[in-house]
């Protein structure tokens, strides 16, 4: 500062104002130091040629390779169209990605809900007798005139009603009793176990808990009859080792 003022203290404020104005001019110009010369000899530097530096033959070869053609169009026009198409495709991909993300979230929630339902499932224990599982037969006889025997066809099967005989234990079966005729539909897993481990089977069917009747007994344990009404066909058997 002493050099700029020539040793005159009266000029110090004036010099400060001039330097401030110079700083403002530099900042307003947005000038950024150019350090690119430091990397001028870098062999790995990426260089993109100007469009005018590429021959028409090279451009035509690239366009032909990717099946891009537009009659009487300039290269700049083709590039502009490609840019517009790219943005349109980007919008479609973004929409599909968001839709897939939404479906994935819904599937994840459904899986979590199903997992929670399975973990909160109620076991029916102390069973004495099981009903038959499967689709009941409904055979319809069809007369065949002129033949000695009639023919048979498979008719529509009636939805089976499942009845289980239980050794009634109030503390164990009170949860089941609370679900009788609650208006909700449940998925029942019916396990047929030949052993504690091994080739067991599991059937699945949807339905409701129709009734739970208790039969007192003086000479045997108290018994109960659990009746399930079904609304779908059986699914299974599935291995349930």
Q: How much helicity do the residues have?
A: 25-40%
Task: Report the C-alpha radius of gyration, rounded.
Answer: 42 Å
Tell me which oligomeric state these chains represent. Answer: single chain
Global outline:
elongated
Please state the structural category.
alpha+beta
Total beta strands: 8
CA-to-CA gap between the ends?
Answer: 91 Å
The biggest sheet, with number of strands, parallel, antiparallel or mixed sense and barrel status, is: 6 strands, antiparallel
* Share of residues in strands: 15-25%
Detail the topology: elements first, then pairings.
Elements: H1 2-5, H2 12-28, H3 56-65, H4 75-119, E1 127-129, E2 139-142, E3 151-154, E4 161-167, H5 170-177, E5 186-192, E6 201-215, E7 223-230, E8 235-239
Antiparallel strand pairs: 1-4, 2-3, 4-7, 5-6, 6-7, 6-8
Give your account of this protein's structure.
There is one protein chain. With 241 residues, the chain is α+β, with helices and mostly antiparallel strands. The chain is 35% helix and 22% strand. The protein has helices spanning 2-5, 12-28, 56-65, 75-119, 170-177; strands at 127-129, 139-142, 151-154, 161-167, 186-192, 201-215, 223-230, 235-239. Strands 1, 4, 5, 6, 7 and 8 form a six-stranded antiparallel beta sheet that branches. It has a two-stranded antiparallel sheet with strand order 2-3. The longest helix is centred in the middle third of the chain and has 45 residues, at 75-119. The N and C termini lie far apart (91 Å). The model has no long low-confidence stretch (mean pLDDT 75).
């Amino acid at each position: 500062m002493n050099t700029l003022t020539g040793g005159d203290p009266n000029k110090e404020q004036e010099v400060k104002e001039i330097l401030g104005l110079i700083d403002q001019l530099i900042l307003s110009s947005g000038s950024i130091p150019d350090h690119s010369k430091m990397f001028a000899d870098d062999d790995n530097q990426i260089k993109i040629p100007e469009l005018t530096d590429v021959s028409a033959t090279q451009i035509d070869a690239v366009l032909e390779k990717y099946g891009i053609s537009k009659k009487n169009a300039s290269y700049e026009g083709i590039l502009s169209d490609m840019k517009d198409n790219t943005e349109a495709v980007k919008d479609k991909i973004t929409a599909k990605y968001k839709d897939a993300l939404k479906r994935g979230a819904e599937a994840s929630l459904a899986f979590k809900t199903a997992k929670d339902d399975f973990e909160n499932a109620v076991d029916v224990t102390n069973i004495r007798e099981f009903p038959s599982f499967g689709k009941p037969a409904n055979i319809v006889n069809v007369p065949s005139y002129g033949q000695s025997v009639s023919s048979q066809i498979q008719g529509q099967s009636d939805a089976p009603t499942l009845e289980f005989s239980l050794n009634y234990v109030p503390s164990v079966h009170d949860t089941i009793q609370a679900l009788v005729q609650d208006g909700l539909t449940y998925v029942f897993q019916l396990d047929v176990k030949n052993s504690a481990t091994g080739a067991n089977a599991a059937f699945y069917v949807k339905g409701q808990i129709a009734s739970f009747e208790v039969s007192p007994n003086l000479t045997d344990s108290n018994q109960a009859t659990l009746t399930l009404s079904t609304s779908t066909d059986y699914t299974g058997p599935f291995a349930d080792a």
